[in-house]
From TrEMBL:
Residues 301-472 form the TLDc domain. CDD domains: BTB_POZ_ZBTB_KLHL-like. This is 15025_t:CDS:1. It holds the Pfam family BTB. Residues 23-96 form the BTB domain. GO terms for cellular component: cytoplasm. It comes from Funneliformis geosporum. InterPro entries: BACK, BTB/POZ_dom, BTB_POZ_domain_cont_9, SKP1/BTB/POZ_sf, TLDc_dom. Signal peptide: none annotated.
Length: 474
């Protein structure tokens, strides 16, 4: 039998840290007027930190009267005090600490190779300070991107920015964003706001970053050729990342053309040819940006995230096939044919009581069909359900954004049929799966009966996969 007495151990080590006179390390933390001297024990520091294990074994460390003298000017006294308490006692109290000090602790724990502490602080910031992070994205990004190991917080920031990029790119301190971070954002397909807004933000950033411009010389009317050349040099690597094909002719004339001098001549000619002759440019990215996907857990194996966003917009009655970000819903997988089997009892038990849901069906041709049930299942028998918010749809493939179809009700009566004995799904006898017909999806043209006006065929299709996602309003 093993007995563990951590509380007593932690208490005794706290006495060693605070009261012992047998220390052999003096650490000077901070710089200028903000400094403090800490006393510690090399054996404990070496045992807890690979950084100190290496540092104290080096011949270059300074000693005075057999005392190790160590300077850490880049770590503030407040941060180093937290680090010592963590090293000696395994304790960390962040409740009353400023976020700036917590960021400092993150940097220090990375440098001192305190992996457990480093991971904990990332999670702590994401869970407890997400609002503060979103209000100070530039500060946080410029901090965490200096730390190669800080992937979790880096990814959180980037994904949050791509969810609401406009507020980020129009923020007052956007111009102080590190150029490598800006480059990475402009490369992303999910950095999805109006391309002209990205252009305006880039020009603003470039002016602030260019010597001789900025607040002292931001009026373009006063610029000379040298000023334009300097701005061109600052933005040379970024210009090809702008998706000019998504900027309208009017926007190009009013907001891009005045900066003709900073765009490489060959590229400018390609862009003009695009606007005049619809010839796609060869020297820039032409694929459109797409919004960060709607929250879906786990990811669908039938459709790509962009199509999930479109379905979410359809739920909000936006039928324009919009790819604009929709964070109003969370999609949770509740049934998967390949995992749960194909029988009515399992299907209905999985879906019953789960609230509104979306059905996705991939057939043998790889075409995708689906429907939205805004009411949900309740194990009803031989029951017609009415709702004005139900719809059915189809995609040509798993990433189709051009040939999709959506059908809403002509008449909301009898839009969904439920019979837990024999029916998987039945949207108005137009898109349905019956247990006794096997693994087949049926399409019928029943719009004349007041149902959905979408399919004009009668067909029976072999099913490859079915997914049902519960839809939760967030």
């Amino acid at each position: 039998m093993n007995s563990i007495f951590h509380s007593g151990l932690s208490k005794d080590l706290s006495l060693i840290l605070n009261d012992s006179d047998d220390f052999n390390v003096i650490i000077q933390a901070g710089e200028n007027q903000n400094t403090k001297e800490f006393r510690a024990h090399s054996v404990i520091l070496r045992a807890r930190s690979p950084y100190f294990k290496t540092a104290f074994s080096s011949s270059w460390i300074a000693k005075k009267d057999n005392m190790i003298i160590f300077n850490k000017p880049n770590v503030t006294p407040i941060v180093f005090d937290m680090i010592l308490k963590y090293i000696y006692m395994g304790e960390l109290v962040l409740t009353n600490q400023s976020v700036e000090d917590i960021l400092g602790l993150l940097i220090a724990s990375d440098e001192l190779l305190l992996e457990e502490l480093f991971e904990y602080i990332q999670d702590y910031l994401i869970k407890g300070y997400n609002s503060w992070i979103q209000q100070n994205f530039v500060l946080v990004l410029n901090t965490v991107f200096k730390l190669a190991s800080c992937k979790k917080l880096q990814n959180y920031c980037l994904e949050s920015i791509c969810t609401n990029p406009r507020s980020f790119i129009t923020a007052e301190n956007f111009s102080s964003l590190d150029k490598c971070i800006l480059y990475g954002l402009l490369e992303r397909d999910d950095f999805a706001i109006q391309e002209i807004d990205i252009w305006d933000g880039l020009i603003k950033w470039g002016i602030e970053q260019t010597p001789g411009l900025g607040n002292m010389n931001c009026n373009r009317a006063n610029w000379n050729q040298e000023n334009y050349e300097a701005l061109k040099k600052t933005l040379s690597q970024f210009i090809p990342l702008i998706r000019f094909v998504k900027i309208s002719r009017a926007e190009f004339y009013d907001q891009v053309r005045p900066y003709k001098a900073i765009i490489p001549k060959n590229l400018y000619e390609e862009i003009k040819e695009f606007y005049y002759k619809d010839t796609l440019p060869k020297s820039i990215i032409i694929t459109p940006r797409r919004p960060a996907s709607t929250i879906i857990n786990p990811a669908s194996t039938i459709i790509k995230p962009e199509l999930v966003t479109i379905v979410a917009n359809w739920i909000d009655r936006n039928d324009s096939n919009s790819l604009s970000s929709n964070n109003n819903y969370k999609f949770n997988l509740i049934y998967l044919k390949s995992r749960d089997g194909f029988d009515c009892a399992t299907f209905n038990n999985k879906c019953s009581g789960q609230g509104p849901f979306v059905v996705l069906v991939r057939v043998e041709s790889k075409k995708i069909y689906g429907g939205y049930n805004p009411i949900g299942y309740a194990l009803r028998s031989n029951k017609w359900i009415s709702s004005s918010n139900s719809f059915i749809f189809s995609f040509e493939n798993d990433q189709d954004i051009y040939n999709m179809k959506i059908g809403r009700l002509i008449n909301e009566n009898r839009c969904i049929y439920e019979n837990y004995h024999s029916t998987f799904i039945d949207f108005g006898y137009q898109l349905f799966i019956k247990c006794y017909y096997g693994s087949r999806l049926f399409l019928e043209n029943n719009c004349e009966k007041g149902f959905y006006d979408i399919f004009n065929c009668i067909d029976s299709l072999l099913i490859e996969e079915i997914e049902v996602f519960g839809v939760v309003k967030i």
